[in-house]
Design brief:
CATH topology: TIM Barrel
Number of helices: 12
Structural class: alpha/beta
Strand order of the largest sheet: 7-6-5-4-3-2-1-9-8
Order of helices and strands: HEHEHEHEHEHEHEEHHHEHH
Length: 319
């Protein structure tokens, strides 16, 4: 339908165009988080997602890490395969949970010897799960700041840490969280990834707070596409992240309608990420849940395109 002259006259001519209009000029950086698979089927899903997202040339990809030897081994195996078989730069997660300093230091050295040069250093959830009381492991690192300092003593890794715009669930206040972030930076952290959020104002208020506190490292927004609203809402509740009512309303009645739910999820994610771009944000970290479809679509909206080498290889394979 053609717009009327009156409608055109309502638009201010001197309004600065949204920054999203200039996407595609190479000024956006992304990173992706994956978790190590527990079964053969999950491994297949993970590697299909990795192959789908690899051509977008992310800044790095992180692989999560949990307490217990088997989880550590799966993380190590996934990171090793990434280094051998892909062009990706893996950043291995590392936590303080259920391990002594000596055990963690051995993992750190193994990662360096493997060729890993970036670590995401986290305290980790209590062994009893989110909500349980956290007690440092006897003889272990006390918290993420202590772990960061320990990593730096072993090798010159680039270290990213977590930060919490709505405060960590166990923290007394946002101010206490900011103090902990300062401690991580003093220990050697060079970047921070936020807990996921859905209201961009939450991120910008937090950014104002940390900048006012003299913190100038990159604070990269962590974003999670809503593949399953109930699942993500549960993650949010355990993590202390709020879910605005309007998001719940958008997914209302779609539990059995996967196709429409997927379209709504894409629209919600696009609205959030483009809103951040319009405010000058140019780096994003995606919690993929080992699924590539929505993340790939969002990156496409951000102006990212598959690297030419990958598209040419795909054409050669098809001919």
């Amino acid at each position: 339908m053609l717009a009327s002259q009156d409608q055109h006259n309502q638009e201010p001519h001197n309004q600065e165009p949204p920054k999203r209009r200039f996407l595609g000029r190479g000024d956006i950086d992304v990173s992706f988080e994956f978790f190590p698979p527990k079964t053969d089927a999950m491994e297949d899903t993970l590697w299909r997602s990795i192959r789908r997202l690899e051509p977008l040339r992310p800044k790095y990809v992180s692989v999560t890490y949990g307490a217990g030897g088997s989880t550590r081994e799966r993380t190590h195996a996934t990171v090793g395969r990434m280094l051998r078989e892909t062009t990706l730069k893996p950043a291995a997660h590392l936590t303080c949970v259920s391990a002594t300093k000596e055990e963690i230091d051995e993992v750190i050295r193994d990662y360096w010897d493997l060729g890993v040069r970036q670590i995401v250093a986290l305290r980790g959830d209590p062994p009893g799960g989110v909500g349980a009381c956290y007690e440092p492991t006897s003889g272990g690192y006390a918290n993420a700041a202590d772990l960061t300092a320990g990593i730096k003593k072993i090798a010159p890794f680039e270290i990213s840490v977590g930060c919490y715009p709505e405060k960590h669930p166990e923290s007394k206040s946002v101010e206490a969280d900011v103090d902990m972030l300062k401690a991580k930076i003093d220990a050697g952290a060079t970047g921070a990834i936020t807990q996921f959020f859905f209201d961009n104002e939450v991120y910008f208020r937090y950014l104002d707070r940390v900048r006012a506190a003299g913190i100038d490292i990159p604070i990269v927004p962590g974003l999670i596409p809503i593949h399953n609203f109930k699942q993500v809402s549960s993650f949010a509740e355990r993590s202390g992240a709020s879910v605005p009512d309007w998001i719940g309303h958008r997914f209302e009645g779609l539990d059995e309608d996967q196709e429409t739910r997927h379209l709504v999820a894409a629209a919600v994610a696009a609205e959030q990420v483009l809103g951040l771009v319009d405010q000058g944000i140019t780096e994003f970290h995606f919690y993929t849940l080992n699924r590539a479809d929505l993340v790939y679509a969002i990156c496409y909206l951000l102006g990212l395109r598959p690297a030419k080498a990958f598209t040419e290889a795909k054409v050669e394979t098809a001919t």
